[in-house]
Recover the amino acids of this structure.
């Protein structure tokens, strides 16, 4: 459980640090990365959903055993990093989008946490059963 707690805590904090500034930087992005954002509803919609997921990671970190089924959704959310990497490799996005590799790494760690959490639950159940509890 300790591994899962740490992975999700770090991911949640990192994600908040990365996503929260999006709410204040639309103008900077418009000025430095043309073309300008033409559909702010998509931009802010993405930022809102991404921020909610970071908060969800913090919830999972509080009690990984209880929220274990949600870990698979967290893996899927991080799989979006694959799209960023593909866009860079296809020269459709700038190299700065390689930051998506962090999401892929976190997705892998989330999957490891999911598996390890199951193993921990089985070990605890086995110990409890053998001790007569």
């Amino acid at each position: 459980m300790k591994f899962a707690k740490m992975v999700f805590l770090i991911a949640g904090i990192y994600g908040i640090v990365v996503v929260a500034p999006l709410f204040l930087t639309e103008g900077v992005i418009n000025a430095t990365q043309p073309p300008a954002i033409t559909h702010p509803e998509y931009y802010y919609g993405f930022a809102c959903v991404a921020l909610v997921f970071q908060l969800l990671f913090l919830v999972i970190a509080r009690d990984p055993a209880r929220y274990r089924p949600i870990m698979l959704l967290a893996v899927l959310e991080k799989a979006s990093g694959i799209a960023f990497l593909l866009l860079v490799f296809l020269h459709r996005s700038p190299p700065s989008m390689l930051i998506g590799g962090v999401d892929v790494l976190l997705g892998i760690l989330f999957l490891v946490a999911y598996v390890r959490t199951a193993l921990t639950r089985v070990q605890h159940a086995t110990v409890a059963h053998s001790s007569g509890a």
About this structure: The first helix runs from residue 2 to 19. The radius of gyration is 18 Å.
